[in-house]
Amino acid sequence: MRAVLKGVLGLVLIASPLAALNHCSTAPADPDDGGACARAAITVDSGDDAGAQCETFFFHPCGIPAGATARDNCYFDVNSCTALCGGPYYTCVAFGSNCVDGAVVVPDDAGLVVECGTCPNGTGRRPDGLRERPEARRERSSRDPIGEYFERAAHLEDASVHAFRIMSRELAAHGAPKTLIFAAKRAQADETRHARATRDIAREHGGNPERACVDARPIRSLEEIAIENVVEGCIRETYGALVAMWQAKAAGDPAIARAMKKIAADETRHAALSWSLAAWIDTRLDDAARARVADHRRRAVDELKNDAGACVAPVLIRRAGLPSACVREKMWTLLARALDLAA
Ligand SMILES: [Fe+2]
Ligand SMILES: [Fe+2]
Question: In the prediction, which pLDDT does 30 show?
Fold first, then answer.
């Protein structure tokens, strides 16, 4: 898998010279799937210049979709954001008159407007039970885009510490091979270093990084573990490893380039672990469960395309080395092709 990732990155580097990185192109695609209750992308004046390029608004004419769960201060949990925003958005919150005293309110026939954050987030796995970070998001503690980006990255890296802690515990409970359990524990240690490194960068740029908060969950079934692993590991961490490799090469800030070089090497190993775990669980699932996991994998690849269309502030491209929208779109295309070949 490491060779595949490096091969994909090499193709992207050939296809997109660094001189092309300053292009910031399209807004996320509207995944409207039809029907009277379908969400629709709308334009809203949020009065917030700093976030204007990273946020999209969706109108839900029938209110909160089934299965979506609101948490504190009108924020929804990570999984709900997929239903509300149609993609792997990091934050989603009820907007304007739909948020009253910290609670989501949907008057009869008025519908729900949701603000979806599409800023790039860094690399990492989002464990089941991960809470949003509404306080940091609401206060906008940092106005430096690099500080804000690394606040989000540090939160996600810290979330990944929990994800691998939970993984090693669940794998032990299911009698997984010791090599997988050891790899999960090693990844947990890696993520602890990543969280520390990204917190340091965030603070150097005026950020106020916060620790991740994850609700405790009982040991899950192998199918549930497989679904989370295929979405968060096989797809998102593989893509995240590609982005980190790009940052290591393209970041104009030497300290960020150094940090991303170390992170990219670890994230590539984490992506490989995800694929090894997927292969082991696959042998323990029946045909119906395997088909459901494959369906989640296909959807995760499709949803990742939204991230590839998100806009990135030019300073993040120059200083933090983030790939532009057009480069990320090419990364997504090449990754999707590579995954098709591997399937
Ligand atoms: Fe990480
Ligand atoms: Fe990782």
Answer: 42
**C-beta of residue 247 within 8 angstroms of C-beta of residue 321:** yes
Give the strand order in the sheet containing 91-94: 40-42, 55-60, 112-117, 91-94
Q: Is the dihedral of CA 144, 236, 223, 167 positive or negative?
A: negative
Which ligand number lies closest to the CA of residue 158? 1
CB proximity list for 174: less than 8 A, separation 6 or greater: 219, 222, 225
Ion ligand 2: residues, Cβ under 5 Å: 160, 267, 270
pLDDT-derived band at 32, boundaries 50, 70, 90: very low
How many angstroms is it from 160 CA to the middle of ligand 2?
6
User: 93 - beta bridge partners?
Assistant: 75, 115
- Report whether pLDDT(263) > 70: yes
pLDDT tens across 72-91, in order? 678 777 667 777 887 655 56
Determine contact, residues 327/20, Cβ cutoff 8 Å: yes
| 269: Cα within 13 Å, side-chain hemisphere | 17
Angle between helices 254-282 and 238-250 (to 10 degrees): 160
Average pLDDT in the chain: 81
Query: Burial of 298 by CB count in 10 Å (0-12 exposed, 13-18 middle, 19+ buried)?
Result: middle
Q: What is the residue extent of each domain of the chain?
A: 2-12+26-342
Rounded to whole angstroms, how far apart are CA atoms 119 and 132?
Answer: 14
Q: Which ligand is nearest to the CA of 153?
A: 1
CA distance 22 to 201: 23
Taking the C-alpha atoms of residue 112 and residue 59, their distance in angstroms, rounded to an integer, is 6
Examine the pLDDT at 130 and tell me if it is beyond 70.
Answer: yes
| Whole-prediction pTM | 0.71
CA 200 to chain centre: 21
Over residues 35-40, mean pLDDT: 82
